[in-house]
Write a structure and sequence with these properties.
Layout (H helix, E strand, L loop, with lengths): L8 H23 L5 H27 L7 H25 L2 H27 L28 H13 L1 H4 L1 H19 L10
Length: about 200
């Protein structure tokens, strides 16, 4: 029973149930209901993809002996992948609207890409205190990093970007001027802590 509560093992069950449901829906739609191939093929593909994700997550969850790093962030994107895997085929079957379906597919792929990135880093790095249930608050003490006290360069970069993008409206000379000043603003932002009071 404890195995079900291991990271990614419980989530793999969601994807497995979803995959079986899609495959069954596609088979019933094709054989019994006489659905067109443009309806049951996306369902079958979604089912196979969901089952592949379930198997991959189950294997990774069972093989991992130490706590996952970035577990909270990983679970957020796993839920997003699951959500778009549920919504996208249903939206296509019910609406046959191409633009919205393509947008949902691309959103699913973006979520899956970020999940894969977090999964690779979760296996590669050691778990942080916030990733472990038994961690103490004192383990998170210490310096977190350098945070700038104030800076005028982000606003300057935004103004230069606006000037550059307004060039096609008012004249290309404005784009050239905005690009030149924008490079100056970016250089100022990058090198702001190499000189002055906050140099380090």
């Amino acid at each position: 029973m404890k195995t079900l509560f291991k990271p990614l093992v419980g989530e793999s069950a969601w994807f497995g149930v979803l995959g079986v449901g899609y495959v069954v829906w596609a088979v019933i739609g094709a054989v019994v209901l006489g659905m067109r191939w443009v309806d049951y093929v996306p369902l079958a593909v979604s089912g196979v993809l969901s089952l592949a994700l379930a198997i991959g997550m189950l294997v990774m969850g069972l093989k991992q002996r130490q706590p996952f790093a970035m577990l909270a962030e990983l679970r957020i994107f796993v839920v997003l992948v699951l959500f778009f895997l549920v919504v996208t085929p249903v939206y296509w079957v019910m609406s046959h609207e191409v633009t919205g379906s393509v947008a949902l597919v691309l959103t699913f792929m973006l979520s899956a890409m970020l999940t894969l990135y977090l999964l690779i880093n979760a296996v590669r790095y050691d778990a942080r205190p916030e990733d472990r249930r038994q961690a103490d608050i004192v383990e998170g003490a210490g310096e977190l990093g350098f945070f700038p006290p104030r800076s005028a360069w982000p606003v300057t970069c935004a103004v230069m970007l606006a000037m550059t993008l307004l060039g096609p409206v008012f004249g290309w000379w404005l784009t050239i001027l905005g690009t030149g000043l924008g490079l100056w603003a970016i250089a100022g932002w990058v090198y702001q802590y190499y000189r002055g009071d906050y140099a380090h």
